[in-house]
Write a structure and sequence with these properties.
Elements (H helix, E strand, L loop, with lengths): L10 E4 L2 E7 L17 E4 L1 E2 L7 H4 L4 E9 L8 E6 L5 E6 L2 E7 L5 E4 L9 E9 L10 E5 L5 E5 L8 E2 L3 E6 L3 E12 L2 E11 L3 E7 L5 E6 L2 E6 L13 E9 L1 E10 L4 E4 L2 E4 L2 E2 L2 E5 L13 H14 L3 E3 L7 H10 L2 E5 L29 H18 L5 E8 L8 H15 L5 E5 L16 E5 L11 H18 L4 E5 L18 H15 L5 E7 L29 H11 L9
Parallel strand pairs: 25-26, 25-32, 26-27, 27-28, 28-29, 29-30, 30-31, 31-32
Antiparallel strand pairs: 1-14, 2-3, 2-5, 4-13, 5-10, 6-9, 6-14, 7-8, 7-10, 11-12, 15-16, 16-19, 17-18, 17-20, 20-21, 22-23, 23-24
Helix pairs in contact: 4-5, 6-7, 7-8
EC number: 3.2.1.31
GO molecular function: beta-glucuronidase activity; carbohydrate binding
InterPro entries: Beta-gal/glucu_dom_sf, Galactose-bd-like_sf, GH, Glyco_hydro_2, Glyco_hydro_2_cat, Glyco_hydro_2_CS, Glyco_hydro_2_N, Ig-like_fold
């Protein structure tokens, strides 16, 4: 599904702003058939949970409704008219006037509907979108809906971040020509100093396909005809970490004249795993950076361009060259920005919480098996497979994306894990043979217990020695951590990196001793991990958990959210941020030069 773009043949209207809002009525009525009851309004894009002071809305389990009127431009006569939703967390239904036009499950990938036959250029229609944040054992991510002793429905889940719901990204009205470009797939290779750009174009209707490759100045450097082929660029300027040079592949459909055109940004680069090295353009690459979250006050998971710019400025300031989209696909605007600025991305599905052991803490003893007909089952795996398809289809052309992460902290030590994940790993390779695949391994699935590591190209580890294990005893934690990493190295001849490590720190809490929750302890723990990383051969990266503090479900284990950020939720640096900046920006230090 192509990202909305204004071109000579296409127009877009972003429907962001205030929409009418209501919780699904309990009387079984059909609210899309008229104006929503009540006087509530909600911002789009934003999660709805923190917008209102009514706890019945914040904690609502089930459907809510967004509604507004939309006018189709009168100049769109003869065009196809589409409604597109960039994300509906976690399921959505779209109605045009009284008609259901689209349904989608999965909270972080787009969906759209052709509404041409239901609307008229120059006239208005009623657009209603229902959104459900409900999670079950067969959704990605999974969860469970319980009924409390007071008779209230309550959503529980196993991921350690707040289950925000709503319309966190833009909604669009689009026009496309009757015959148009439906999809474009780009691959790149390097032969000496020549860049090779492969392309495959899908069209909705018969037309001659013409492609032209333009450099950053808009000058044409190559051209071809036909729905697929290769373009060769002598003395190509490569996309590199820290230097996001982009060409533009201009795809045109021609029938006497140009009837559709669509531009695709292209970064010429290669990604490869060779032995214990991770290579970009044939050069060893060492990841420095973070797991992040789409999370900010009031907006929840709502995309915000101001936060986008500021967060990337902080990544540059601290010397980070990468991040993981933990634990779901981020807004497309984030990847576009990473493409332009040379930030490397590990792109992750929303498959977090496939581990019932987490319900009992870090004991490794789940009350129920994770993989069974009653828990994580074939229906869950089908939803997971669809999430992989939609992630790769959406993000396949981004040069910043160098690896697909299929899941975070699954119960890979349990029986049934291999039968669940092997088909998914095969699917990801079939969909995109050009990028490595990985998963983030949880602490109690050690190298002797894990059943799936050989299915993946890179071993990503999440470890909390010194925090959840050996808390307050960094000397013992260092011994345990190094022994753990060396066992992984001995068992698998693959690149190994740390995708989560860190400690909670309350900003402003200080001590001269090793006291957990202080800024000093967080910094000392990171120093300990770095000493161990630097002693391990085949180690290819370090991504701290987390970039910034974030909201979690309320409970006794979290006070005002997760405090493992090296920045506060409002993006103020803790002591650990200065430590990382010193390590990552020092001449000859870790990571690619910035």
């Amino acid at each position: 599904m192509l990202k909305p773009r204004d071109t000579a043949t296409r127009e877009t209207i972003k429907l962001d702003g205030l929409w009418r809002f209501a919780v699904d009525p309990a009387d079984g009525s059909e609210p899309w058939r008229g104006a929503l009851a009540g006087d509530l309004e909600a911002a789009v894009p934003a999660s709805y949970n923190d917008l209102f002071v009514d706890p019945a809305i914040r904690d609502h389990v089930g459907w809510v409704w967004y509604q507004r009127t939309v006018r189709v431009p009168r100049g769109w006569t003869g065009e196809r008219v589409l409604v597109r939703v960039d994300a509906a967390t976690h399921a959505g239904r779209v109605y045009v006037d009284d008609a259901l036009v689209a349904e989608h499950s999965g909270g972080y990938t787009p969906f759209q509907a052709d509404v041409t036959e239901l609307v008229r250029p120059g006239e208005e229609f009623r657009l209603s979108i229902a959104v459900s944040g409900e999670l079950t054992n067969t959704t990605i991510p999974p969860g469970r809906v319980e009924t409390t002793a007071a008779g209230r429905r309550r959503q529980t889940y196993l991921h350690d971040f707040y289950n925000y719901a709503g319309l966190p990204r833009s909604v669009w009205l689009l026009s496309v020509p009757p015959v148009h470009v439906e999809d474009v797939t780009v691959t790149t290779a390097i032969e000496g100093t020549t860049g090779v750009v492969g392309f495959a174009v899908e069209t909705d209707g018969p037309a001659e396909v013409r492609v032209r490759l333009l450099d950053a100045d808009g000058d044409q450097v190559a051209e071809a005809a036909g729905p697929s082929g290769e373009l060769r660029v002598p003395e190509a300027v490569l996309w590199r970490p820290g230097a996001g040079y982009l060409y533009t592949l201009l795809v045109e459909l021609v029938d006497d004249a140009v009837i559709d055109s669509y531009p695709v940004p292209v970064g010429i680069r290669t990604v490869e795993v060779r032995g214990t090295e991770f290579l970009i353009n044939g050069d060893p690459f060492y990841f420095t950076g973070f797991g992040k979250h789409e999370d900010s006050a009031v907006r929840g998971k709502g995309h915000d361009d101001a936060y986008l710019v500021h967060d990337f400025q902080l990544l540059d300031w601290i010397g980070a060259n990468s991040f993981r989209t933990s634990h779901y696909p981020y807004a497309e605007e984030v990847l576009d920005f990473a493409d332009r600025h040379g930030i490397v991305v590990i792109d992750e599905t929303a498959a977090v919480g496939l581990n019932l052991a987490m319900g009992g803490g870090l004991t490794g003893r789940p009350p129920l098996p994770t993989f069974s007909p009653e828990t994580i089952n074939d229906e869950t795996r089908a939803a997971h497979a669809q999430a992989i398809r939609e992630l790769i289809n959406r993000d396949k052309n981004h040069p910043s994306v160098v690896m697909w992460c299929l899941t975070n902290e699954p119960a890979s030590q349990e029986d049934g894990a291999r039968a669940y994940f092997e088909p998914l790993a095969t699917l990801a390779r079939e969909l995109d043979p050009t990028r490595p695949i990985t998963y983030a391994n949880v602490m109690f699935a050690g190298p002797d217990q894990d059943q799936i590591a050989d299915l993946f190209d890179v071993i990503c580890l999440n470890r909390y020695h010194g925090w959840y294990v050996a808390n307050g005893d960094l000397a013992s934690a260092e011994v345990k951590l190094e022994a753990d990493l060396r066992r992984w190295v001995e068992r698998h001849g693959k690149p190994i990196m740390m995708t989560e490590y860190g400690a909670d720190a309350m900003p402003g809490l200080h001590s001269v001793w090793d006291v957990p929750w202080t800024e000093e302890y967080q910094a000392d723990l990171l120093r300990m991990y770095h000493r161990v990383f630097d002693r391990i051969d085949g180690f290819v990266g370090e991504q701290v958990w987390n970039f910034a503090d974030f909201r979690t479900a309320p409970g006794i284990h979290r006070v005002d959210g997760n405090k493992k950020g090296v920045f506060t939720r409002s993006r103020d640096p803790k002591a650990a941020a200065h430590l990382l900046r010193e390590r990552w920006t020092a001449p000859g230090g870790r990571g690619a030069p910035r």
